[in-house]
Amino acid sequence: MAKKKQTIKYNYSGIKFTIKQRYESWYLDFYFKGQRIRRDTDILATKEGLVELKRILIPEIASSLLDNITPPIEEKEWILDDLAQEYFILQKPKIRKHTLKRNKAHYNNHVFPYFGKRYLDTLLPMELERWQNDLLEKYKASTVQKMRSILYSILDKGVQNNLLQKNPLERVTAPKVMLNLQEEEEDADPFTETEMQIILDNSNFYKRSPYMRNFILLMYGTGMHPGEATALRWSDIDWDRKTISITKTRQRNEEGATKTKASNRKIDLLPLAEEALKNQYELTKDYEYVFISSKKEPFYSHDIVGVNFQRILKRTGIKARVLYNLRHTFASQLISKGADIVYVSKMLGHKDVSITLKIYTKFIEEDDEIRFKKIEKMGTIMGTFQKKSL
Fold it and tell me: Regarding the domain delimited by 186-363, which CATH topology (the fold level of the hierarchy) does it fall under?
């Protein structure tokens, strides 16, 4: 059975083009001032060729015919993938490079195979719900929410540009998750003090990585994200006021803003963190960044630190856990020893205290002596009542 040849309607600056597949190339058919114009192109009838046709050849034709050019307006013949590519182009200057790359991967792997070649106005809520349910059988709700969010944003861009009347994904209930909180809670597996001592004792085993003990101790002593530590500059340290300004994070050789507005913060330089930074100062005081690679440059990302950390855990026989758990260890240690939860929350850069409590209270353990003292204290606060004699 012969493959059906494509016909696409495309409105550019008021000129209504009909794009047809003719043999192995794209063919144009349009009217201008009442005259019908038809012409072959040398552009292959492929997805990439269609993009070239729309972005290069058609604008050149319109430019030669019109005095003033306005942006292209396509009608309902848009397919989802066309809209997705435009969406990602518009997103490029707005989000971090590694985030854009991750979003494209989610789209290419989990959205395009289902709906990429579908016309926008043919997408039905029940199909989108079935797609979401299929994903929930394979992935965590938080992961599916990310995929859904990308598709929702793409479709919303279609609504904003009058290519769709409504976003069909609005009628599909989203997975009930708290994204960042759930992920942090699921991954939280802090180290004990004994484990931390062993880790620190073995942290500088690899002579090519003399910074490892300082990096580990800094994360443990501040609750920083790994990306925040790799982005740290000496100018961010105020030795006199004992503060650290955290305003950036580093991923994939790109430096950007911290994860949230609350993450942009100034934290106290606690003794362990001060020890780590003073030791590191002897290694990198002549450089801008606190931590630098063997090439004397800022780290591409914290990945290599994470790899070295796994080697330390393997060497010591400690259960394998990601570098991020040093942040969890900082928080759980402080809270379990009676630190003010509000203080800990601000150090971590959480939006509010409820997030901190949700993640870390399950790690709080008290011995009976501490618990008995708290019972006595609470009883004093509540007061006593006299018993009336009969």
Answer: hpI Integrase; Chain A (1.10.443)
